[in-house]
Amino acid sequence: MCGIVGIIGKQDVAPLLVEGLKRLEYRGYDSAGIATLVNGGIERRRAEGKLANLARLLEDKPVAGGIGIGHTRWATHGVPNERNAHPHATQRVAVVHNGIIENFQELKAELTAQGHVFESDTDTEAVAQLIDHHLAQGLSPRDATAKSLERLRGAFALGIIFAGHPDMMIAARQGSPLALGYGEGEMYLGSDALALAPLTQRISYLLDGDWAVLTADGATIFDRDGATVTREVRLTQFSGALIGKGQHRHFMLKEIFEQPEVIGGTLNTMLNPAERTITLPSLPFDLGVVNRVRIIACGTSFYAGSVAKYWIEKLARLPVEVDIASEFRYREPPMEPGGLAIFISQSGETADTLAALRYCRAHGQHTLALVNVPESTISREAEATLLTLAGPEIGVASTKAFTTQLVVLACLAVGMARSRGAISGETEAEICQALAEVPARVAEFLRRDDEIRLMAQGISEARDVLYLGRGASFPIALEGALKLKEISYIHAEGYAAGELKHGPIALIDDSVPVIVICPTDELYEKTASNVQEVVARGGRVVFFSDQEGVDRLASPPFAAMALPAVNPFVAPILYAIPVQLLAYHVAIAKGTDVDQPRNLAKSVTVE
Ligand code: F6R
């Protein structure tokens, strides 16, 4: 949420700032801006809308300067327009910010009373004005910043430059992620290592409360008490190559089509296909003695966790609670020491999930991160990490991260079950066989993309869409509804099929498509009965099952598609694909912005 980048370079930095912002645009795209120092004075270029608008502005009005900061915005305070775009600046200082300054109104009132004139509606401008205030009193940039940081409440990653100081920049982190990059006679800062990868592979991560003074030769880092600290410089695994869409029209489509490969790659880290066993990476706690599991995540990652609840409870016979991170953190749940808390996050930076992790750690839980970004904060703070090898996911709507999360969770469920002696070698072998076949089944289904495209035409005119599923297909129904909402802006709800009669059935008429996720498993008959209830009321059922399931349906649905037959255990992974493709094609039919849907951002680093 909001991406920031900063460079102390040897030549004009504006083009490099824009390059860095391109790699951060997934974090927000309401507006963008940069500030550099030209002859010691602050020069800004800002533009409303996507980064392309800023790039165009810079072509018309280039800006020089060997030091600069840049920002791509996801609006929190103040509508997205040029006036509210970062950097926020006074004559003396310019600031880019990711996060929320919670006490900005109090600061603004104070500073306004002292004669400061605010230009924007943002919380960030209070930081610029506060530092300016201290600079005006004769403090050095470093002291003015230190004094200002003491006053800030909330979450922030800040990049700050100062008029008349072309050789230094300040970075500060509280809550929101911030990385420093070490170049040859150049220094960089960025919201993540991905943004900095084309500039340098040598990265260090600031910890909460840290702030740093950067010069061309390096950085002096201070902790929240002002003591000088060192933070390990490591080599990032991110490639500097710009991630392209390949032959696909959108990142989302490319990422959907990458799934056979990334599911296979993720499986390979744990599955031995010859022996048909799962080997989990060694963990610093014994899964065999864990007595309780809690899974905490947001959005799509939460739905992956919800599928895992079915898997772990059934296979490992362990009680699992699944929580939405933003609810969990304020509920202050009592926790008995010795439990296992699993945190699922593509980005590894989601603020609520991170806060939940810290809470669980403080309450004596073993913490296990399941992330797609190995260097992320959640990964660094958890006791152990399991990685999804989905590769960078750029489309805002999560697709390949979800299915690789499911793969890891399926393996984890098997690993837990075995360490507790809850499954036989035979069952493990069957599940392993089914998992090993998933990449091929997904690839097989993806070849039928055109059929989904045609199906989507009938849905794109709908105002409301319902998704139904039972058992582990219920979270897939929820995920399908979320995907459709977020990229096509059609109102959609996922329901447990058995809940239909308890209310939602009142919505059924011939204008409401009802998408049913119904593999032939032990619950097939029950869901099929619910389908009949919908058909009887004129509902337009779109039925996803396998051939047997389609054939067994008593009355024909509006549309049906037979997926490859699979072991029911792995069905949630396969059935995620049609709901992703359906959302994609409906969005295309509606002409919405698939990769950058309105109001959304990929990495939610504010509450
Ligand atoms: C939906 C989507 C979001 C994320 C959620 C959590 O397509 O992408 O719902 O799943 O914001 O993000 P992570 O997994 O990065 O914690």
Q: How would you describe the overall organization of this protein?
A:
This protein is of the alpha/beta class and 607 residues long. The protein has 3 domains: 3-243, Aminohydrolase, N-terminal nucleophile (Ntn) domain (Glutamine Phosphoribosylpyrophosphate, subunit 1, domain 1); 256-439, Rossmann fold (3-Layer(aba) Sandwich); 448-590, Rossmann fold. The protein is 37% helix and 23% strand. It contains 19 helices and 27 strands. The chain has an 8-stranded antiparallel β-sheet with strand order 3-2-4-1-10-9-11-15. The protein has a 7-stranded antiparallel β-sheet with strand order 5-6-7-8-12-13-14, with helices on one face. Helix 16 (473-488) links the parallel strand 23 (464-469) and strand 24 (491-496). The longest helix is centred in the last third of the chain and has 22 residues, at 425-446. The radius of gyration is 25 Å and the shape is globular. The model has no long low-confidence stretch (mean pLDDT 94). Residues 298-301, 345-347, 350, 353, 397-398, 482, 486, 603-604 line the site of fructose -6-phosphate (F6R).
Fold blueprint:
Layout lengths: L2 E6 L5 H9 L8 E8 L2 E8 L2 H10 L6 E7 L14 E2 L3 E9 L2 H10 L10 H13 L4 H11 L2 E9 L6 E6 L4 E4 L4 E4 L2 H4 L5 E4 L5 E5 L2 E5 L5 E2 L4 E2 L15 H7 L1 H10 L2 E2 L4 E2 L14 E5 L1 H18 L3 E5 H7 L8 E6 L5 H12 L3 E6 L5 H5 L2 E4 L12 H20 L5 H22 L2 H9 L6 E6 L3 H16 L2 E6 L16 E5 L6 H13 L3 E7 H6 L6 E5 L7 H20 L17
Parallel strand pairs: 18-19, 18-20, 20-21, 21-22, 23-24, 23-25, 25-26, 26-27
Antiparallel strand pairs: 1-4, 1-10, 2-3, 2-4, 5-6, 6-7, 7-8, 8-12, 9-10, 9-11, 11-15, 12-13, 13-14, 16-17
Helix pairs in contact: 1-2, 3-4, 4-5, 8-13, 8-14, 9-13, 9-16, 10-11, 13-19, 14-19, 15-19, 16-19
The structure holds fructose -6-phosphate.
